[in-house]
Each structure stands twice: as C-alpha cells, then as structure tokens.
C-alpha cells in the first residue's frame, strides 16, 4: 500500500517538476500579484490534469481487480484480496475528492493525504526537506502538516514581503503542546501572540537588559566566564584530558544567562545542567498531536507527560530562585555591586503607574516565563554556533591561518583577547558572519504563525497558518551565494551585508519586531568566546569529527559529531595562571 501511495504521489511530483517556478526572485509585488493570478489559473489546470491521471490509474487498478476476481473466482483468498483492493481504491477515490488543494486559493505545493497531509514525506530534517521542495514549487509554497495549513518562505524577496511589508499579519508564533507545558501556556515573550502584553515585555527587555549600556555592564561577567573556560582548558591541556567544545561552551553560555537573570553562575551545578538538557530534549521531539489535533487527548507518544514532568522540575527551581531573591531583598542584601540590574531586579520591582499599560506589575508566572525564555533562547543557540565555527575554521587551514595572522597583528601573544579587540578584527568578523550563514541555530526561525487570514501575492493564507521561513535554505541558494556550501569569509569582506535582520539573504536572528531580542548579547558571546578559543589554543581534533558536518536536529541545529579534542596552549603559561 505504501508503495502504491508513493507511485501515485510521484506521478504528482513529476507533473510539478515540469512546471515553471511560481515566483521569480526578482518579481515585484504588484506584477507578481497579476502573474500569481494567472499562475493560479495554470495551477488549477495542472490539478485537473493530475486528477485525470489519477482517475486513469484507478481505472487500471479497478479493471485489474475485476480481471483477477473473475479469473480466480473460486479461490478462498479472492474475497480477502477483493476487500483489500476495494478498500485501497475507495481510499484513493476519497482522497482525490478531498485532496483538491491544500486549501482554497492556496499557493502551489505538494498535495498530501487526508488527515496526515504531507507528513509521510517529511523527515526530522524538515529544513532540508522544505529546501528541496522549494526547488520544485518555488519560493512561496504551501503544504499541509497533518491538518495544519503551512506556508514555506524560501527567498529573500518573499521573506521581505511577509516579514516586512505584511509584518502585522505574521508576528505571532506557532505553539506546540510541549511549548504550552514549558512556557506557561505559551504566554512568555517568545511565544506570546503579538499583543500589548508582548510589546510591554519586549520593551522592558530591550531597554533594561539588552541596551548597549546594560550589555556593557555585563561585560565583567562575560570576561570571568570566558577566562574561567580558558584556564580550565589550560589545566586539561597539561593533563592531556580531552575537552568537549559544545558542552563547555554550553556551560559558559548558560552561566552567562544566569548572570543576566539573577547575577549568579548557576550552571556549575551538574543537576541544573542536566535539567535544562532534559527540557531541551523533550521539547525538541516532534509531536504528532501538534499537527493532528484529535490526537491531543491521547498523547500517543507520551510527550506531554514527559514534558510536564521536566517542566514541573524547572518550575520548582525557578520558584526557589524567586523566593531566595525576595528573602535577600527583605534583608536589604544588595546583589550587584555595580549599577547593573538583573532580570529578577527589573521584573520584581516593576510597577507601572501609566494608566494605559496592560500590566501593572508582573505575576510569578510572568517572571518564571521570562526565565524559561532566557535559558531556552539564549544558551544552546550560542554554544552550537561556537562549535560549528570551530569546525568550519579548523577545517580550512588557510582561513585559520588568516585569522591567526590578524590576531597577531591586533593582539599579539602576551594577553588574552578582550571584547574591545573584536571590532578591530575585520577578517574574523567576516568569518563569524559566514558561520551564521551556513549554520543558523534556528533554520526555520522560531516558527511564525499568521494572526489573521490574509492575501499574499494574490493567494489566500488562512488564520493560524504555520509559517516557516527557511533561512537555512535561503543561505544555501546558489543564485544568491556562489559556491554556497564553501566556507568563505572573503565573501563578506567586500560586502556590507550583516546578520542583524536588515539583509534578507542572511537572517540567523530573524527580522522585524519578532527578531531575536538577545542579538546584541548572542553575537558578542559567539564572537568573544570563539576568538578566545582560537587565540589561546592550538586545536587537534580527529579529522573525521572535523570533516563530518552532519547536522543533528534538536532545539537548535547542532553538529552531530561533537568536537572533542586536546587543546595546546599558544600563549605564555603565565597568562593562563
Ligand atoms: C547565537 C545566538 C542566537 C541566535 C542565532 C538566536 C536566534 C533567534 C531567532 C532566529 C529568533 C526568532 C526570530 C524571528 O522569528 O524573526 C530568536 C528569538 C528570540 N531570541 Fe534569540 N538567538 C540567539 C541568542 C539569544 C540570546 C542570548 C537571548 C537572550 C538571552 C535570546 C532571546 C530571544 C528571545 C526572547 C526571542 C523571542 C523574541 C520575540 O518573539 O519577540 N536569543 N532568536
């Protein structure tokens, strides 16, 4: 049955293969509106054509069954075959009747099955599957993920149209069952629908925690964490103990986030590290119940149960953290010696006097939600980018050499790199952009959702459609990036392109009002940690782990073969001590 399904579907796909792409990347909005209408007509024609082909196939199938049953009319197996083939035929017939389009006036895209939609053809490497489909259906296509209408964006032009010109319609998030458990029913900043409340949360974070002044005030904590890492690697180098780059930088990132939120380095504690890992693992598993809503009540993979358990643990931990801070406040203990405020200070003391604000003060749930967001959004993203960066740079000796020459010219070997040096490292900064291009931590962004029904290029997009912006695919499009799979920092030396959300060819932090609020911190952490590791040590990783760039899909896109190696100091011993 599966084979037959595949045969029938491949008939569809071949028909599409021969069709021209829907949108040429250069098409302007108004002309594309007209052309999209005519291509919508062609699309319907193609669909009728496909239906005719399907009917032909079913006709053949039915006549085969008739011949078979006439010939073997007395065989006992015959009845079983008859029932079996009739069921299949009925299934296809019903499917054809139901599977007209993904929805009325939908953008082009592959047809799926009733209920399960296109799911049987998708793997866990969704970004790659969608990238491949975009080669057939163009940069703006539709499909059904289970029962959920889905739009996939695969070019800078379409990304600009959706996330800039029609930003108001695509500023909410897709929320999964796991997210509901972890992120307090999806009310946290990352997942809250675009609303007054979201605007207030975002404004407070931007002004109080991620302003340039606040980021500068956090610099001593970053320095302490990174120097601590270099010193511990030095000790490992002396005892020839291998170090794991992703794991060590994960501790640095999470400790930094915990300094941001409560001015403590919580992640030296193994239990907490494991708890966060458990949360990440549970949240990253795709859940059928998210896409086929009637399965929700059954929780067929037991994921809701699993996530609820880890979410409860995390909640207890955050409760204690808040209690501790309230106790310290009562006793008049001042946590920060400099003028820096951490997230708990800001949110516990927040009292809004303005009449028009939607929140007068924050509840415990609001505050715990902010803590979840910071740890989920800020830790793995940073550490996995650093690991990819090490692999890409060390795999290319000429790039590595150029980076070291620049370090020599700007810093020398008599001290560690400092954050203030980074802006002088032109080639290294270009290399970091190239890392973000090839390895965006969130290849489909944090999936967006349409907050309302709307029209894009003359097509209908229903309310609550899942929107995947395939930034991974856009950054590998040979029309935009010559030799897209090559790691070439040079491409950024001559160009003004940046990763901050203005250039739609490279969007590792997203763009617009829902872009990454932690960008100033994330970018600095990646640049500073990576530069420090390359400047302070020579690295010797097994060639196969370095060469193998297979991706592992988790909460972020990670390197499947982790980098584990023994560092060799490049600087004078006294600098590490
Ligand atoms: C290399 C580091 C990072 C990368 C690649 C990254 C990437 C992203 C992306 C792609 C989004 C979704 C953007 C969109 O939909 O347009 C996002 C959102 C977000 N990020 Fe980051 N991020 C990083 C670091 C951080 C850090 C350090 C924090 C905070 C400590 C953070 C907090 C957030 C939050 C709160 C949102 C949700 C914003 C909203 O919905 O309004 N991120 N990030």
From TrEMBL:
<keyword id="KW-0812">Transmembrane</keyword>
<dbReference type="InterPro" id="IPR001128">
    <property type="entry name" value="Cyt_P450"/>
</dbReference>
<dbReference type="InterPro" id="IPR017972">
    <property type="entry name" value="Cyt_P450_CS"/>
</dbReference>
<keyword id="KW-0408">Iron</keyword>
<keyword id="KW-1133">Transmembrane helix</keyword>
<dbReference type="GO" id="GO:0016705">
    <property type="term" value="F:oxidoreductase activity, acting on paired donors, with incorporation or reduction of molecular oxygen"/>
</dbReference>
<feature type="binding site" description="axial binding residue">
    <location>
        <position position="516"/>
    </location>
    <ligand>
        <name>heme</name>
    </ligand>
</feature>
<dbReference type="GO" id="GO:0020037">
    <property type="term" value="F:heme binding"/>
</dbReference>
<keyword id="KW-0472">Membrane</keyword>
<keyword id="KW-0503">Monooxygenase</keyword>
<dbReference type="Pfam" id="PF00067">
    <property type="entry name" value="p450"/>
</dbReference>
<dbReference type="InterPro" id="IPR036396">
    <property type="entry name" value="Cyt_P450_sf"/>
</dbReference>
<dbReference type="InterPro" id="IPR002401">
    <property type="entry name" value="Cyt_P450_E_grp-I"/>
</dbReference>
<keyword id="KW-0349">Heme</keyword>
<dbReference type="GO" id="GO:0004497">
    <property type="term" value="F:monooxygenase activity"/>
</dbReference>
<protein>
    <recommendedName>
        <fullName>Cytochrome P450</fullName>
    </recommendedName>
</protein>
<feature type="transmembrane region" description="Helical">
    <location>
        <begin position="79"/>
        <end position="98"/>
    </location>
</feature>
<feature type="region of interest" description="Disordered">
    <location>
        <begin position="24"/>
        <end position="48"/>
    </location>
</feature>
<comment type="similarity">
    <text>Belongs to the cytochrome P450 family.</text>
</comment>
<dbReference type="GO" id="GO:0005506">
    <property type="term" value="F:iron ion binding"/>
</dbReference>
<keyword id="KW-0560">Oxidoreductase</keyword>
<keyword id="KW-0479">Metal-binding</keyword>
<feature type="compositionally biased region" description="Low complexity">
    <location>
        <begin position="27"/>
        <end position="41"/>
    </location>
</feature>
